[in-house]
Design a protein that fits this description.
Layout (H helix, E strand, L loop, with lengths): L29 E7 L4 E4 L2 E4 L3 E10 L2 E8 L1 H10 L22 E3 L10 E3 L5 E8 L2 E12 L2 E3 L7 E4 L3 E9 L5 E8 L7 E5 L8 E5 L10 E8 L2 E7 L8 E3 L14 E2 L12 E8 L2 E7 L12 E4 L14 E4 L1 H4 L6 E8 L2 E7 L24 E5 L5 E5 L3 E2 L5 E2 L14 E12 L2 E10 L14 H8 L5 H12 L4 E4 L7 E4 L10 E8 L2 E7 L13 E6 L6 E7 L4 E6 L6 E13 L5 E5 L5 E6 L3 E4 L7 E9 L11 E4 L7 E9 L4 E10 L9 E6 L6 E2 L4 E2 L5 E5 L7 E10 L9 E4 L8
């Protein structure tokens, strides 16, 4: 039976725990520097202090050569109040992560006669907007300025001299080119109480130049509490609204003449209420892709009831004034057939003509909002999936659960890590952004990691597989919890050039702060990649409170394009060389099978930390210490003698029969050509044919020996030949290798078949 206190975790296959340096990977790797800690430093009346009540760097935009960051306030305290009011229940935690929980979310003025509302007690939940002006010579040493803070508004329902913040969060920022060519920055808002969410506008970003562009879109005051999605499309602004109790699940379009209209001018709805499906409780994300506006919903119902997120698209043409909608087409249904483990979408972003989608369960992986609804109940625990949509609206899973869809197609993830890139604490893929480093564009993906909450959950209330993991930890459960938090506490940050099966881990531990549980914002700029964190631990300054970081080139480059041939008794690795490398360090993670209290089994990480299994000056390595049937993950680090890089891309697999075994024949010396000749047999154990011209690389070929009939040399200098097409399921070919061996030394090499997306040797 489900228990409300169940921890937000899921079983996983490869859990990549690691304590890493704060450096990124790839060509011209990014190194990240901290610009803001503990919710910004505030100086007023000659007094300065940190403000950890700024919980999230909630929104971010690069506008007129400056960075703007919008915050939200006291998120854990407000979530606890919501829980106590029965609006959005939380898993029970003892102790609760923050101490300061007032009796209500209001501000009570102790001295109303002086006209200064700030003198009082309660929650100061007034959201803020900060501006950063980088120093062009040294972007890490620019100037921060608070350019806007929400006002207090009277709240008579709370009693006399009671106030509430007009906005508690600035959720989204977007730059919109207005009909007259003016570029303005628009900010969507989030409220706890009051008249409703609004849209703010500025042309300069300066203090005092923040006007209300729209008051709750002209609807009845109080019906809209948040603007979740915000998009610019075909000269109009589009906003996805949220209201109490799943009210007004719609998308609104800015009116003609906007913004030169009264702030109370109604916006028109452009989709049916909840897309004509009452199971859709909110519209979470909007994104423009391939000439259409895409929208993603939250649908908490189980798969058998049609639950799981839906994604819709419209060209925003031929408006129907009676139905008050454009024509919409459903692109994905039922959480991509994962049901409510893909309850909603927390991020959407376009990269290399694909729309990337982060599927998740709201609440960081467990949603108790509907626990009293007999048709829904508690949702999760669930680990996030990453998918993408093609221009023809077909879709693929990057990392997630393999499954059969109604058409009969088996959807196989691009990487075999399982959901969350193998980390079962990944609640969301929270932000996805592209950033160009040198001549290469990379896709960056930041997660929400809920592992910090293991310290607040009672052992006997945890998810069964986490319970089993902790009870088998050598030094006991409490040490196991400490190990989890120290090694993996905090968000993960990944990047990829192809966005499919080749991913580089940048950081697994919230840049060294487990309280940084999420990458809430990413913003590409000419000065580097800015990253804003979610960190609502107000009692833990200077570690608690949101942070802002800047990634700029300069870190040590790790090896690129790690490739792997997994076999039953050995795993062969090869990679492209890294500039300035003196040697390479090989790191391995091992998974073990664990049985839960109800007999379920999963492959999860064994308690020992990741193993440094070897060093080499070569660009290949053979691990012959694997056990048949076990799952492993590998990455490589560059050692320059003065420093060590972050990880290369990760390769994962199971030690089992090799896909393409190479059976060597004996060497025969041909007197007429004075060459050594060897015939080898290459077998294809996969179901599909191996296409022609796949490279067979000869790694570690004996010095001074030359492969005479080579077809080329790999990037690491090793010779290779091209294989002919090989039929699947046991098909084989024989090829002849010819060697010139002037020293008549024993000829040795390690054969490596470079297949799939690794095809460039």
């Amino acid at each position: 039976m489900y228990n409300k206190k169940m921890m937000v975790v899921m079983p996983f296959i490869f859990f990549l725990l690691c304590s890493l340096t704060i450096s990124a990977q790839g060509q011209d790797a990014l190194g990240f520097s901290q610009l803001v800690k503990s919710g910004f430093w505030i100086e007023e009346d000659g007094h300065g202090e940190y403000d950890p009540h700024n919980s999230y760097a909630y929104s971010m935009a690069w506008f007129k050569d400056k960075l703007y960051v919008g915050t939200n306030r006291d998120m854990l305290a407000l979530r606890k109040l919501q829980d106590e009011l029965g609006r959005r229940p939380l898993p029970e935690m003892d102790p609760f992560p923050v101490d300061y929980i007032p009796d209500d979310p209001f501000w009570h003025d102790d001295n109303p006669a002086n006209g200064v509302v700030d003198e009082g007690e309660g929650l100061d939940t007034r959201a803020q907007i900060w501006r950063y002006t980088p120093d062009p010579e040294n972007p890490e040493t620019g100037e921060w300025e608070r350019v806007h803070r929400a006002d207090w508004v009277e709240y008579p329902a709370g009693g006399p001299d009671t106030y509430v913040a007009e906005e508690i969060g600035y959720r989204n920022m977007i730059i919109f080119e207005e009909p007259d060519g003016t570029e303005a920055l628009y900010v969507s808002t989030f409220i706890a109480a009051g008249n409703g969410a609004r849209l703010l506008r500025t042309e300069t970003g300066n203090p005092g130049d923040w006007e209300v562009a729209s008051n709750w879109f002209g609807l009845t005051p109080g019906t809209i509490t948040a603007i979740r999605g915000l998009a610019s499309f075909k000269g109009k602004l589009y906003a996805a609204t949220a209201g109490p109790g799943s009210f007004d699940v719609r998308i609104y379009e800015s009116p003609d003449g906007f913004p030169d209209v009264d702030a109370d001018t109604p916006w028109r709805p452009v989709c049916p209420e909840a897309f004509d499906d009452p199971h859709n409780k909110e519209i979470y994300e909007l994104c423009v892709f391939n000439g259409y506006l895409y929208a993603a919903t939250l649908n908490p119902y189980p798969l058998e009831a049609g639950g799981g997120f839906q994604i819709w698209k419209t060209a925003a043409e031929s408006y129907d004034p009676i139905a008050q909608t454009y024509q919409w087409t459903k692109v994905i249904d039922k959480g991509a057939y994962r049901g409510n483990l893909n309850e909603t979408v927390t991020s959407m972003y376009v990269f290399k003509n694909k729309l990337y989608v982060g599927g998740a369960v709201q609440g960081g992986g467990i949603d108790l909002t509907f626990e009293d609804d007999p048709e829904i109940g508690p949702v999760g625990p669930g680990t996030a999936e990453l998918l993408y949509i093609n221009p023809d609206d077909t879709w693929e899973i990057v990392c997630g659960d393999e499954r059969e869809i109604p058409s009969g197609e088996i959807k196989v993830p691009k990487i075999p890590s399982g959901p969350g890139f193998g980390d079962f604490f990944t609640g969301y893929f929270w932000r996805i952004r592209a950033h160009k480093v040198g001549d290469e564009e990379w896709l960056y993906v930041g997660t929400m990691d809920n592992s910090i909450f293991t310290k607040y959950i009672l052992m006997d209330e945890m998810n069964d597989l986490l319970y089993e993991w902790l009870t088998t930890y050598p030094d006991g459960p409490e040490a196991g919890i400490q190990y989890i938090i120290e090694k993996t506490g905090g968000f993960d940050l990944w990047k990829s050039q192809n966005g499919e099966d080749d991913w580089y881990p940048i950081n697994f531990n919230g840049f060294g702060t487990p309280l940084n549980y999420g990458v809430r914002t990413l913003q590409s700029t000419p000065y580097g990649l800015f990253l804003g964190t979610a960190n609502p631990f107000t009692d833990d300054a200077p570690e608690g409170g949101c942070q802002v970081w800047l990634g700029t080139p300069g870190a040590i480059n790790p090896p690129d394009n790690l490739q792997a041939n997994f076999g039953e008794h050995e795993v062969k690795l090869r990679w492209w060389p890294s500039e300035a490398a003196v040697m390479y360090r090989i790191i391995r993670h091992t998974a073990v099978e664990v049985t839960g209290r109800f007999g379920e089994t999963r492959m999860i990480l064994s308690p020992p930390p990741p193993e440094p299994i070897g060093v080499t000056t070569e660009t290949f390595y053979v691990d012959n210490t694997v056990e048949p049937g076990k799952a492993y993950a590998y990455y490589i680090k560059t050692d320059t003698g003065t420093g060590i890089s972050g990880p290369s891309n990760v390769r994962m697999g199971i030690a089992k029969d090799i896909f393409f075994p190479v059976i060597p024949g004996r060497f025969v010396f041909k007197w007429d050509t004075r060459l050594f000749v060897q015939t080898i047999t290459v077998i294809n154990n996969t179901p599909a044919p191996l296409k022609a011209d796949v490279p067979l690389v000869l790694e570690g070929l004996t010095p001074n020996v030359i492969l005479v009939n080579q077809d080329g040399r790999a990037k690491n200098g090793s010779p290779y030949v091209h294989l002919p097409q090989i039929p699947g399921i046991g098909g084989s070919v024989q090829i002849t290798l010819k060697f010139k061996d002037p020293m008549f030394a024993p000829i040795k090499y390690v054969p490596f078949v470079v297949f799939g997306r690794d095809a460039e040797p």
